[in-house]
Input
Amino acid sequence: MLGSVGAAAVFAVALVQVLVGGPLLGADRAVQGLLDAHRYAVGMDVAVGIGWATAAPGQVVVALVLAVQFAVRLRDSAPLLLGAVGMLALLAVPVAKELVGRARPPAVVLAQLPDSPAFPSGHAATSAVFAGVVYLLAAPHLTRRGRRTLAVAALCYTFVVGLSRVYLGVHWFTDVVAGWALGAFVVGLLAALAPGFSRTGRPRAR
Output
């Protein structure tokens, strides 16, 4: 639960900075300036591919399919509830985008930017929740080493997806940080609720 509180605080700070044009937005311009000097065709192609592969609908479907598989295997509705609640929480992203209405970075990288507002990054939030849900579904059935490995993989996945959006020039860095924070907030709540959802599958201590 403390993790969710911290994530909410990070999101709140980013939101206030965006709304009032605070000094932390200088980091956005600094990051964009740095990336402008290090954008290459191969990197852009990779970033575009990551964006397509990690679009929200695909991640939601995969998470729900995994949740159904765990529910059927365990004969327990808890995994399905966990996956469904996590994915439904992502409805907060488009709502926040419309309420904040932040413009995307100048279209100097791609010829056409996405139509939706920038803050927070949907890819960053969705990847964080997706990775968190996968971890929470699988972790009770893994060894300690397996849980550590999956946690590192989940963090790397979320990190790469978020940074690819900044590299591609479709988001400011603070958009991605806010997306990560929103996702971490949801995952923290799910982790706190998970024991109440589940009747089976306690972690194995090995």
Notes: The chain has one domain: 2-19+40-197.
